Amino acid sequence: MADKAEIVDTNDLQQGHPAHGQPIHSPTATSTTAASTTAEAPPPTDEIKDGVSGGDLPPPQQQHQQGSYSNGKAKGKSLQVEETEHHEHKDEISPELEVLLHTDPMNGLDDEEVEKRLATFGPNEIKENKKNPILKFLGYFTGAIAYLIEVACIISAVVGDWLDFGIILALLLVNASIGFIEEAKAESALDALRQTLALKTRCWRNGHLVELDTSALVPGDVIVLRLGDIIPADGRLLGIGATGEATEGDLLIDQSALTGESLPVSKKKGDVVYSSSIVKQGQQMAVVTKTGIHTFIGRAANLISITTEEGHFQKIINRIGNFLILITVVLVGIILIYQLVHFHGTEEGKFLTVLGKVLVLTVAAIPVGLPTVMSVTMAVGAKQLAAKKVIVKRLTAVEEMASVSVLCSDKTGTLTLNELTFDEPYLTNNYTAEDILLYSYLAAEPGANDPIELAVRTAAEEQLPLLQNRTHKHDVPGFKVTSFLPFNPATKLTQATITNKDTGETFKVAKGAPQVIIKLVGGDDDAVRAVNALAKRGLRALGVARTHGGSMDEFELIGMISLIDPPRPDSAETIARCKHMGVDVKMVTGDQLIIAKEVAHRLGLTRVILDANHLVDPTKSDEEVTEHCLRADGFAQVIPEHKYRVVELLQKRGIIVGMTGDGVNDAPALKKANVGIAVHGCTDAARSAADIVLLAPGLSTIVDGLLTSRAIFQRMRSYALYRITSTIHFLMFFFVVVMAFDWTLPAHLLILICILNDLATLVIAVDNAQLSPHPDKWRIGQLIFMSFTLAILLSALSFAHFFIFWKVFGYQPLTTLGDGPEHRLESVMYLHISSAPHFVIFSTRLTGYFWVNLPSPLFAAVIIGTQIVALLMVVFGGLTPKIPFSQAIVILLISFAYFIFLDVVKVQLFKMWSFELTAQFVRTPARRKKLAERKARRKQQEAVWKDIDKIREVVLKLKCLEALNEQPREEGQTMEDPQVFEEKQRRIEEEHKGKKSEIGDEEIKGMEVANAEEHRALADQGGAGGSGSGAIEAVNEKAEHVEGEDNVRNA
Fold first, then answer.
1. In the 3-class helix/strand/coil scheme, how is 811-838 assigned residue by residue?
2. Kindly report the CA angle at 843 between 656 and 801, in degrees rounded to 5?
3. Distance from CA of residue 17 to its chain's centroid?
4. pLDDT for 696-752, tens place per residue?
5. Same structural domain for residues 813 and 878?
6. Least confident of 200-214, 586-600, 934-948
7. Per-residue pLDDT tens for 153-166?
8. Of 40-54, 259-273, 520-534, 912-926, which range is least confident?
9. DSSP calls for 207-241
10. Which of 888, 913, 938 is the last residue of a domain?
11. Same domain, yes or no, for 241 and 110?
12. Does Ion transport count among this protein's keywords (predicted)?
C-alpha cells in the first residue's frame, strides 16, 4: 500500500543521508528528483543535507538560504507535514461474531449470556501440554542405531551373554542420560506465553463494573483499559471512558513484544488492540473480540504447539544408522543362514549356538559408541559456549548451528536496542545540538512514563555537561521552571515558562508534534521539508521552539528532534562477520517498512526489504515466494505467521535456518527454525521456544556460537567417517573369513576392540579442529563413498596380514578355542584390527593432509596409548597368546604408515568429489532436479555478466569521448596515449574476468540486485556531461528498474 505522501518540491531536498554525529541544518537549494513513496519501493533518498552552514555555499546560494529562514517564517504556506500511513495487520471478524459485539457499554453481558459464550468459545486462556518426563527420557532410546543396539542387547540376554548385555545396556543408558540431563532445563513455551497475559481485568457485567479473572472473559465483554494495564484479550476500542464519557485523544499502546514495532502505536475509536500489549497513555473502554487461542498471541501459541519436527541432526544420524543397519543385517544374515545350513545336524549347528556367534560379530560391528561420542562432543561444546554466556537448551542445536546458511533476525530488541534514542536533529536559526537538547529538557515532564519523554531526558542528561553532577536531578543549573503545562492530547504539546537566573530573562519553551510547533512559529517550509524527509526515513520527529525578543507570544523555531530505535553497538559488525562466514542475514520485522529500511541501511544491509504482502500473495506460487525469501534482505510489517512462513519456505528449499528474536511474536519462528536463538532481555516466551539463549547483551556471541559449532561439526564428521569406515572394514573382512574359513576372533577380543577404541575416541571432543569458512553440510553420499573406499583398502591390508602370517609364518586359522601358541594368528589379527582402522582417525580429522592441522597432544596421546596397550597385551599375553615383540612392533608400524597412504587417497577423493559426480553415480530424481537448477543458475549468471560487460563497454567508450571533448588544462598538455588507454581497458577486463571466475555455484543468489548495483557503480564512474549524460541516466534508470520487486523475482 502506498504512503499518503505528496510530491515535495524537487528544489528543496538534497540527496544523501545525514552523516552520523552531525546535526541537520536548514536544507540547501539543490535540484534533485523526488517521487511519492510507496510501501514497496525503497525510501526516497531526497533528504535534507546535514552539516551545511551558510559558509559552505557559494555567495549567491548563501544569501538565498539565509533569507529563506532568518525570520523563521515560510515564504509560502503551500507545504504541509505529511501524514505517514501506519500499516497494521487487520483481523477479520466473521459476521456471526460481529453480531455478538454490540453490547451495551454501560451494562455489559449478563450471567446467562456469559455462560452460553463460555460454552461456545471456551475460557480466555492458552492450554498447556506438558510432556511426561518419563516418556521424554524414553524418547532418547529411539532412532535407527538405538534400535539395532537394543536388539543386540535383547539377543545377548536370550543367549546368556551377560557381559555383552551389561556393556550394551550401560552404553544405552549413558547416551540417553547425557541428552536428557543437558536438555532438562528447558521450559514450556506455552507456559511462558500464558504467563504474559494479564491476571485480572475490570469489566462491565450485569450493569456493574467488576474485577474478574481474565480467563472468564468472552467475546462481547466490555472492559476498561487504563494506563499501565496489560490488555487481557483482543478488543475493539469504543472511544469512551469507564463511565461512558467521551475521551480526549487516542490510546497509546506498546505492542513491541507482539508486532516488533519500536514505537508506541496510537489507537483511536474502532481500532483493534491486542492481548498482552501494554497501555502507555490514555483511557478507553473496549469490547472483547477474540479470546484464548483465537487471539493474536493465541495463534502464536498454536504455531509453537504444532511445531514438533525431527531435528536436522537426528535425521542425519538416522540416515547413517539406516545404512549401517542395512549392511550389517544383510551380511550377518547371510552368515547366519550359511552357518545354520553348513553345520546342520551338529552341535555347532544349533540355532542358539549360531546366534551367539553371530551376535558377537553384530555387537562388534554396530557403532554402539557413535551416539555417545556424538553426545559427549556436543556437551563439551555446550560447556564451552556457556563460558561465553551462551546457554544451549537443546544439545543437537550445537551441531546444527554449524550448518546454518541463512540467519533470520527480528529487528526490534534483537538488532536494535528497543528503546528510543536521540538521533541527529534538524536545526535552524543558528541553534546548536546542545541548545535543542537543553530546551527540550526544560519542556520535558519530570518522571513521565512516556518513551519519547524518557528518550529526550536521557539524551540530555548524558550529553549536556550542565546536567551532570547535579545535587537534585530535577533542577537545571542557571534556570528555573516557573510554570509547566503537561502534554495534552488536544494541543499535542508541552509548554514551560522558564526564568534565566543569570540574566533574569523569562521565556517560554514549547515541545510537541512537528505540525503543531511549525504552526506555533508561523510556518516554516524548510522545517516541513525536514520533517517529511525524516518521516520518509522512519524517524520520529519532535518540534522545539521558544519565545524571543522579550515577547511571551512570538515563538522562534529551534529545530526538530529526531528519534529512532538504534541498532545495537555490535549488530553491524556481527552481520558483517556472519556474511564473511557465509551466513546470509535477513531482517524479518513487524515494524513499518520505512523504519526497517532505515535500520537496514545503518546495519550495512541493502534496502531490498519487502512488505508482508509478498509472503501471502495468492497470485504467486510457493516457489516464487521462496525466491523472494532467498533474494530479499528482509521483510517488514509481518505478523508471527509470516515469520513462521519465511522459515518454513527456506527449510523446504533444503536450507538450514537460524532465527534470532526476543518477543512473543518471534516465538513460533524460533521454535520452527533449525536453531532458535533468544537474545539477552528477551521475553519468557522467546526464551522457552529457543534452542540457544544469549545471557550477555549484544549479538557478538552469535559469532562465537558459529565458530564453536563449526569446530564441533568437524570433530563429529571426523568421528563419523572413521567409525563408518571401521564398521564396513570389519564386516567385509570377517564376512569373507567366516564364509571361507569359518574363522573369527574370540568374542572377548572383538568386544575389547569395540569398547576400548570407542572410549579412546571420546577425547575427540577436545581435539584441534580446522574451521570451515562456509556453513558445513553433511554430505552423506560423499561420506559413505569415502568410507567404502577407505574400508576396501583397509580390508586389503587385513587380508595381507591374515595370509602372510598364515602362509609364511605358519600361524594357522584354527576354529577351536584356546590360548596356546597355535592360536597366535588371533593375536596378530587382534593387534592389526585394533590399530589400523584406529590410526585412520588421524586422517579423517581434515579434508586436507593430516599435517596441515596436527591433533591436540591429549588426543594423539590417548589414541597412540590405546594401541600401545594392545601391543603390550599381545607381547606379554594374558587375554591372547604371546607373539614376538619384533612382529608386534612391525604390525603397529605398518598400521601407522598405512594411514599416511590412506590420507593421500582421502585428499585426492575430496579434490575430485563434486555434486555432479554424485548425481551421475546415484541418479535420484531430487539430485537430477538440483543439478538442472544449478545449470540454469549458471546460465543466468553468465547472462548477467554479459549485460555488465556491455554496460562497461558503453561506459568506457563514453569516458573516451569525454576525454576527447575535454580541453587541455595547461599549455602543451595532451590527451592520454591511445595505447595506454587500451592497456588500462585490458587490465580492467582481466580483473573483471578474474572476478567472474571467483564466483561459485553457491554465490549466484541475488545476482539481480548485484547487477543493479554494478550498473549504478559503472554509471557513477562514467560521470555526466555532454553526450554521455543521457546514457548514464539510462543506465541509472535500468539499475533502479532491476532493483524493483518484479525483477527481483524474474530477472
1. CCCCCCCCCCHHHHHHHHHHHHHHHHHH
2. 130
3. 28
4. 887 888 888 888 888 888 888 888 888 889 888 988 898 888 888 888 888 778 778
5. yes
6. 934-948
7. 787 777 677 777 78
8. 40-54
9. TEEEEEEGGG--TT-EEEE-TTPBP-SEEEE-SB-
10. 913
11. yes
12. yes
319 & 405 share domain:
no
Residue type, 638: V
Relative orientation angle of helices 351-365 and 144-158, to the nearest 10 degrees = 140
**How many domains would you assign to the chain?**
4
Confirm if 247 and 284 have CB atoms less than 8 A apart. yes
The CATH number given to whatever domain includes residue 733 is 1.20.1110.10
Question: Which grid cell sits at 969?
Answer: 588544462
Examine the domain organization and report whether 558 and 500 are in the same domain.
yes
The CATH number that applies at residue 223 is 2.70.150.10
pLDDT of residue 226: 86
Statement: residue 79 has pLDDT above 70: yes
Q: Which range, 523-527, 638-642, 939-943, 966-970, has the best average confidence (pLDDT)?
A: 523-527
Q: Is 819 a catalytic residue?
A: no
Range of the domain at 854: 313-379+707-767+777-913
In terms of domains, do 286 and 153 share one? yes
| 1005 within a domain of the structure (yes/no) | no
Cβ(292)–Cβ(121) under 8 Å?
yes
What does the block give as the cell for 52? 551545511
**Do 216 and 276 share a domain, yes or no?**
yes
Average pLDDT over residues 635-661: 89
Side chain identity at residue 938, one-letter code: R
Determine contact, residues 437/747, Cβ cutoff 8 Å: no
- The Cβ of residue 345 has, within 10 Å, a number of other Cβ atoms equal to 7
Higher pLDDT among residues 158 and 890, named by residue: 890
SS3 191: helix
Does residue 331 sit in the same domain as residue 320? yes
- The answer to pTM > 0.85 is no
The type of residue at 275 is S
On whether both 550 and 588 belong to a single domain, the answer is: no
The yes-or-no verdict on residue 37 having pLDDT over 60 is no
